[in-house]
UniProtKB/TrEMBL annotation:
<dbReference type="InterPro" id="IPR007051">
    <property type="entry name" value="CHORD_dom"/>
</dbReference>
<dbReference type="GO" id="GO:0046872">
    <property type="term" value="F:metal ion binding"/>
</dbReference>
<keyword id="KW-0677">Repeat</keyword>
<dbReference type="InterPro" id="IPR039790">
    <property type="entry name" value="CHRD1"/>
</dbReference>
<feature type="domain" description="CHORD">
    <location>
        <begin position="140"/>
        <end position="204"/>
    </location>
</feature>
<feature type="domain" description="CHORD">
    <location>
        <begin position="4"/>
        <end position="63"/>
    </location>
</feature>
<dbReference type="Pfam" id="PF04969">
    <property type="entry name" value="CS"/>
</dbReference>
<keyword id="KW-0479">Metal-binding</keyword>
<feature type="domain" description="CS">
    <location>
        <begin position="216"/>
        <end position="303"/>
    </location>
</feature>
<dbReference type="InterPro" id="IPR008978">
    <property type="entry name" value="HSP20-like_chaperone"/>
</dbReference>
<protein>
    <recommendedName>
        <fullName>Chord-domain-containing protein</fullName>
    </recommendedName>
</protein>
<dbReference type="Pfam" id="PF04968">
    <property type="entry name" value="CHORD"/>
</dbReference>
<keyword id="KW-0862">Zinc</keyword>
<dbReference type="InterPro" id="IPR007052">
    <property type="entry name" value="CS_dom"/>
</dbReference>
Length: 342
């Protein structure tokens, strides 16, 4: 079957079923700035690369096998001058392999090194539980693979299509270059980055090692704010076990429900919260999070975003970003201040 080339979709499809609005994709280009990741065509921004790859498309249409036309090009810093073209026609640059190995620690910010090691460990240790059925067309979860499941004999057997070539490391974006922490090769364009062949071989990871057969589900959410708190409601019924971990600038939510269903979410927050004064309440039809703000700053959104079209104010008739203010103000570490940093 042909495979859709639209960013955010990239699914195999049947020509007779290729109708309007069956494809959900991103019409823009990827945007990476100050640790935030997203698409130029929509406002959502995340910090984790896996969350970025899972951002649902904001445009609907029919599947296509043509090279996608990018509406906007992601802003990037100028690339280093030294470059060369390989025999495959891919432009690469940087020092030879031996030298890159010596400089590899510099490519990964020290603050994220622990996270990179954790990601590598999970990728290398997790394997498919072959007792769990795989839907036809399911894409391998390993980074850099992109192979779709066909059948147990083909995709889980001993043939060449059962071999998974993937990247066990984390993505690294630095000074316009794009690559993986597990191998030295770097490219300039995002499309070429997605095509970088994996540096490790193993078995495909279509469903993981979830022996309980849990189904991850998405729940409807709603939020509002007061001058001192942010209130988040997650609408989930039949809850069996609920765990919420408040962090300074994020929250981890894990809700187990009946029928082996589970809602699991890591949510990066627009601004920091007071962990000790934040709490959650489990109700019959929903879960309520009451998060205490660290200051009187109004949040323009629940999650970090580079696209702010409105601003909530408290106690004033004019525009303002803080309680009682008449002009928009925000702290230096606010996500809105990222675009002003040089």
């Amino acid at each position: 079957m042909p495979k859709c080339t639209r960013k955010g979709c990239e699914k195999e499809f049947k020509e007779e079923e290729n109708k309007d609005n069956c494809c959900q994709f991103h019409s823009g280009a990827p945007v990476f700035h100050e640790g935030l990741k997203g698409w130029s065509c929509c406002a959502k921004r995340v910090t984790d690369f896996n969350d970025f790859m899972n951002i649902p498309g904001c445009t609907f249409g029919s599947h296509s096998t043509e090279k996608p036309v990018v509406a906007e090009k992601a802003p990037e810093k100028s690339a280093p001058a030294a470059s060369q073209v390989t025999k495959e026609g891919v432009e690469v640059y940087g020092a030879p392999k031996a030298e890159v190995k010596k400089e590899a620690p510099v490519a990964i910010p020290a603050a994220s090194s622990d996270k990179v090691e954790e990601v590598k460990k999970v990728e290398e240790e997790e394997d498919d539980d072959e007792s769990i059925p795989v839907p036809e067309g399911k894409t391998c979860k390993r980074r850099g693979c992109g192979v779709s499941y066909k059948s147990d004999a083909i995709s889980r057997g001993n043939g060449p299509e059962a071999v998974c070539s993937y990247h066990p490391g984390a993505p690294v974006f630095h000074e316009g270059s794009k690559g993986w922490s597990c191998c030295p090769r770097k490219v300039l364009e995002f499309d070429e980055f997605l095509k970088l062949k994996g540096c490790k071989e193993g078995k495909h990871l279509f469903v993981g090692s979830n022996k309980s057969g849990e189904e991850l589900v998405d729940c409807r959410t709603d939020w509002y704010q007061t001058p001192t708190h942010v209130m988040l409601s997650i609408f989930a019924k039949n809850k069996l076990d609920t765990k919420v971990v408040f962090n300074k600038d994020s929250v981890d939510i894990d809700v187990k429900m009946k029928d082996n269903k589970r809602y699991k979410k890591h949510l990066d927050l627009f601004h920091t919260i007071d962990i000790d004064q934040s709490k959650f309440t489990v109700l019959g039809t929903k879960l309520e999070l009451n998060m205490k703000k660290t200051g009187g700053v109004s949040w323009a959104a629940l999650e970090p975003t580079a696209d702010v079209t409105s601003w909530t104010t408290f106690g004033v008739s004019g525009g303002g970003g803080t309680v009682g203010a008449k002009e928009m103000q925000y702290t230096d570490d606010s996500p809105l201040n990222l675009s002003n940093r040089k």
